[in-house]
């Protein structure tokens, strides 16, 4: 098997493996030889091609046609270059090919699954190969206009742009009217102009405005056309102003206009028309119909409409390049009312469940407790510092606080000493009671209890029998317990000399 070039050999190997659903890559490739092996390391498939010595061709030297790997629909051999080549051939046969139709084509023809984004990018590059780049075509507008004026003298080409201070001008609109169309419309067409516009399907969009007439045979006759940014008042005014300069004053020539031309009734063909009666009357008088017909319905008018020839514009390679700033394409505008075809996935994520029993964290405003103003606290309040004074006033306040703490500590120590002395005196007076008290309660509880008890000035002397803290009776019933405890501890409740223990 022989090939003229190594590139032809690589394309054949790639297409062969795509048809059988295998992935291969070229491990060795230079100007004289090329070797392809399978992506699977355990698969023995390989092919080797090298240049022949005598003839200027390339021959396959080694070919092991055995694949031990499994078939896959997502194989790597279907790269971007191969997809572009396949789509280029398909788009030439089907110019309005969509992404979905291209995906179905690859599935049916090669049983391969290709990403939609990859198909979209490949279709864009394939269209650039066929039609050329749109950006480059906008940059060649001035060269194209210059070539029209040279090949068809007397024509009108107007290019309007938006000047930019920091970049090249941006395209706005273009008007084209050939000299042959001007003469043909004025000399042989009826004074009727139809105006209409249509959308341009492209990346940068825009609209096409046209001015159409009718020849003697009721056929469409193109007068002028323009490509504008949109169909609005400014674009139509600019278009009609230039058209009036080309074909003459509209009012003086009696031109009639119709915008968005629709089908209408042709009364001349209805049975109630008087045209048949007129023809019969002229025939009865032996007169010719051509003498009573209008000039633009004659053969002379038809010939006058097409007597001026239009010279074709040569291809781009014959254009003269002008030393001017290239024109940039208009800025892309997203069409209004075009919803996205893909699902919005932002609302699919699980939402955070907040605890209904927990309030949200709110950082409140700090309010001073001294002056009741927001923005600071009591410690940094200026009014409080001014009221307290500055300099020597602050140490005095600190000294007074220290004295109060010292007095409180001394008072506490004296109270503890008095309690300890009372406990010792009680133990001397009655050992059994002290033992019961120490067993029944802790030292802290006993100390706090004693602080609220009434004692006499003389230790060890008890009051009358039957009297106590809680007892009112004579030692019987509920007051018996209180009287006995009071008697044993030497505590009297009715003495006039009693005072609270500090």
From TrEMBL:
Spans annotated as Disordered: 330-358, 460-502
Pfam families: DBD_Tnp_Mut (PF03108), MULE (PF10551)
Basic and acidic residues bias spans: 341-357
Superkingdom of origin organism: Eukaryota
Residues covered by the MULE transposase domain: 193-243
Location of the Transposase MuDR plant domain: 2-54
Positions with biased composition (Low complexity): 482-502
InterPro entries recorded: MULE_transposase_dom, Transposase_MuDR
Protein name: MULE transposase domain-containing protein
Upper taxonomic lineage: Eukaryota, Viridiplantae, Streptophyta, Embryophyta, Tracheophyta
């Amino acid at each position: 098997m022989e090939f003229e070039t190594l590139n032809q050999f690589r394309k054949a190997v790639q297409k062969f493996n795509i048809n059988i659903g295998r992935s291969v890559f070229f491990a060795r490739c230079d100007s004289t030889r090329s070797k392809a092996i399978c992506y699977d390391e355990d698969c023995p498939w390989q092919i080797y091609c090298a240049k022949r010595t005598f003839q200027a061709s390339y021959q396959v030297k080694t070919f092991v046609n055995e694949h031990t790997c499994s078939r896959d629909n997502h194989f790597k051999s279907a790269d971007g270059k191969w997809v572009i080549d396949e789509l280029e051939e398909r788009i030439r046969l089907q110019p309005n090919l969509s992404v979905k139709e291209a995906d179905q084509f690859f599935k049916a023809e090669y049983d391969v699954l290709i990403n939609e984004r990859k198909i979209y990018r490949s279709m864009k590059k394939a269209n650039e190969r066929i039609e050329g780049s749109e950006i480059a075509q906008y940059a060649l507008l001035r060269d194209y206009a210059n070539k029209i004026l040279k090949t068809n003298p007397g024509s009108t080409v107007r290019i309007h742009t938006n000047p930019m201070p920091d970049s090249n001008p941006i395209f706005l609109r273009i008007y084209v009217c050939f000299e042959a169309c001007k003469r043909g419309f004025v000399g042989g067409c009826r004074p009727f102009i139809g105006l209409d516009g249509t959308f341009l399907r492209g990346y940068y969009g825009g609209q096409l405005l046209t001015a159409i007439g009718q020849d003697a045979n009721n056929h469409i006759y193109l007068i002028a056309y323009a490509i504008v940014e949109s169909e609005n008042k400014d674009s139509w005014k600019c278009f009609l102003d230039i058209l009036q300069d080309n074909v003459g004053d509209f009012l003086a020539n009696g031109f009639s206009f119709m915008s968005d031309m629709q089908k209408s009734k042709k009364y001349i063909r209805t049975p109630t028309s008087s045209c048949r009666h007129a023809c019969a009357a002229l025939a009865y008088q032996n007169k010719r119909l051509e003498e009573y017909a209008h000039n633009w319905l004659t053969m002379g008018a038809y010939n006058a409409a097409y007597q001026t020839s239009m010279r074709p514009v040569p291809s781009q390679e014959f254009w003269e390049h002008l030393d001017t700033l290239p024109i940039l394409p208009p800025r892309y505008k997203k069409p209004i009312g075009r919803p996205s075809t893909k699902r919005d996935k932002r609302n699919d994520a699980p939402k955070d469940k907040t605890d209904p029993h927990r309030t949200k964290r709110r950082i409140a405003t700090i309010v001073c407790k001294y002056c009741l103003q927001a923005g600071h606290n009591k410690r940094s309040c200026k009014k409080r510092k001014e009221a307290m004074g500055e300099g020597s006033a602050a140490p005095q306040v600190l000294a007074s606080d220290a004295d109060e703490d010292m007095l409180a500590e001394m008072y506490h120590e004296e109270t503890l000493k008095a309690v300890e002395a009372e406990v010792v005196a009680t133990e001397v007076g009655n050992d059994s009671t002290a033992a019961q008290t120490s067993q029944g309660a802790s030292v802290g509880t006993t100390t706090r209890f004693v602080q609220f008890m009434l004692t006499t000035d003389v230790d060890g002397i008890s009051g009358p029998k039957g009297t106590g803290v809680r007892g009112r009776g004579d030692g019987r019933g509920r007051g018996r317990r209180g009287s006995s405890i009071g008697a044993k501890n030497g505590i009297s409740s009715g003495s006039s000399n009693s005072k609270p223990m500090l």
